[in-house]
Specification:
Helices cover 86% and strands 0% of the residues. It is built from eight helices and no strands. α3 crosses α6. Keywords: Membrane, Receptor, Transmembrane, Transmembrane helix.
Length: 200
C-alpha cells in the first residue's frame, strides 16, 4: 500500500517536473525566479500553490481569485487549441467549458447554501484545477461522461424540438418587427412627401 502511494506521488512529481520544463511564458518566469533565488522551480510552484490555498481559505477577494484561476489558464489553453490543427485539445477544452458552465449554473441556484460551506472558494478552486488537470481522467472528463452526457442524450430530441420552436418564434417576431419598421418608414416617407408638395 505504501509503495503504491509512493509510486503515485513520484508519478505526479515527474509529471509536474516535466510540465515545468516545457517552454512557455510561465516556465520562463519560473526560470528567472530560480536563477535569482537559487530555489528549484518545483519548490517555487509548491510554495505558490500553498500560498494560494491559504489565501483562498482566509483572504479577501477569494471568490475573484478562485474564478480567475478557473478562467485564466483554460481560456489561454482554449485559444491555443483553436489555433492548433489537433482535434483532441479542442474536445478537451470544450468539455471543460461545458462542465464549467454546468457548475456555474448549479452554483447560481445553490449560492444561498454554498455560503455556509467552510473554505468554499478553496474547495471550488481545487475542483476547477482537477477539472483542468492534464490527465486522461480529469474532473471535466468524469463529470461530462458520467453526468452531463447521459442527461443530454436522454433528452436530446426534446431539447432540439424546443430550440427549433424558439428559433421559429424568434423568426416570427423578427419578421413582425421588420414589417412594423418598414411600415413606419413608408409612412414617414409619405408624410415627408406630402409636406414637400404642400410647401410647393
Amino acid at each position: 500500500m505504501a509503495s503504491t502511494t509512493s509510486g503515485t506521488a513520484e508519478g505526479w512529481k515527474a509529471k509536474l517536473n516535466k510540465a515545468l520544463q516545457e517552454k512557455n511564458f510561465f516556465t520562463d518566469l519560473l526560470q528567472k525566479i530560480e536563477d535569482k533565488t537559487g530555489v528549484r522551480r518545483m519548490y517555487i510552484v509548491i510554495a505558490l500553490a500553498a500560498f494560494l490555498g491559504i489565501y483562498l481559505m482566509v483572504g479577501y477577494g477569494a471568490q475573484f481569485v478562485c474564478n480567475f484561476v478557473g478562467f485564466l489558464y483554460p481560456a489561454y489553453a482554449s485559444v491555443k487549441a483553436i489555433e492548433s490543427s489537433q482535434k483532441e485539445d479542442d474536445t478537451q477544452w470544450l468539455t471543460y467549458w461545458v462542465v464549467y458552465s454546468f457548475f456555474a449554473l448549479v452554483e447560481f441556484f445553490a449560492d444561498i447554501f454554498l455560503f455556509w460551506i467552510p473554505f468554499y472558494w478553496f474547495l471550488k478552486c481545487v475542483f476547477l484545477v482537477w477539472c483542468m488537470a492534464p490527465i486522461a481522467s480529469n474532473g471535466s472528463q468524469m463529470i461530462y461522461h458520467r453526468l452531463i452526457k447521459p442527461i443530454v442524450l436522454k433528452y436530446q430530441n426534446k431539447i432540439d424540438d424546443a430550440i427549433d420552436k424558439a428559433a421559429d418564434r424568434l423568426q416570427e417576431v423578427g419578421d413582425f418587427a421588420e414589417d412594423i419598421g418598414r411600415g413606419a418608414a413608408n409612412d414617414a416617407i409619405r408624410k415627408r412627401m406630402a409636406d414637400v408638395t404642400k410647401d410647393e
